[in-house]
Protein: RNA polymerase sigma factor
Amino acid sequence: MSKVSSASPSDADLDRARNGDDDAFARLVEPHRRELHAHCYRMLASSHDADDVLQEALLRAWRGLAGFAGRSSLRTWLYTVATRACLDAAESRARRALPVDLGPASTRPVIGDVPAAETAWVEPYADLGLGAVPTTPDVRYEQREAVELAFVAMLQHLPGNQRAALVLFEVLGFSAGEIATMMDTSVTSVNSALARARTVVSSRVPPVSQQRTLRQIGDERLRETVTAYARALESGDADLLISLLTEDVTWSMPPLPHWYTGLAAVTEFAVAVPLHNCGEWRHSAPISANGQPAVGSYLWNATASEFRPWSIDVFTMRGPQIREVTSFLDPSYFAGFGLPPALEAAWPVALNGG
Structure:
């Protein structure tokens, strides 16, 4: 049995679903849909791919429900189907990356940087609802820890079998024996995959998670930092922005390939580009992305006479200061965070209740 408990499905709904009742199947799946989507995101590092693969996995589950004999929980069986769908998808897709994975930092601001269309990029994740899945103390990673940018980017450096084994064991609490069955392999192979994956984890994932850091900062101080960042961009206040950053801060903007590290380089970039070369900014209220503080950034569009979505800015914190800014430049992400498609000119600045 899995280390993570779950309620048994309704026998009546299970019988109805096996007989072709799609409403009964939807009722069986709904309690697990959110966590299955997060699982697909961890495996694929893309919210859009997670949407597609989860839909494919549920279609496979619907078609194969007659083969569910009840020897495991429905939840375990659904994870088996979803994991295999993710592994199939991973074989046909390029591994996703962040700009910091692909080359050295730029020493001078790049004006007019062009997206690297040939690169598959890690995408931000709207984590509303995560953390509700019951876990046991021996599960190593909390649900939100396991969607943090550092963890998700690290997973992309692993082969599919190692990625799946690590997530299923360390995040979801399945045993090596269960994982062997789910992945149609041996316990020895699972343990070997786990050992190799843990070596990569130790070299690429910070020892202190963002969840622990955020608890130490506190919600009020964190909100002050995020809204001060928004105010700095909206007012062009370089000194305020600099005061929020660590000495070794990094700033990246996928799909743009160039990135910056160190307070001097980031300051030069910020002054040259977002503060003085982009136009007028407005921001959403603070949101959460990948279990980390974030904000939606909007740029003024004179033709439409409104502020249009520009980027989801995700912050990695060290104490109360920002250690990393990852600005995901794609308006299509905004809907997933429940953010409006535009802001009117009169929209108040974030620090005053935006």
Q: What stands out?
A: The radius of gyration is 22 Å. The first strand starts at residue 245 and ends at 253. Residues 46 and 123 are 5 Å apart (CA to CA).
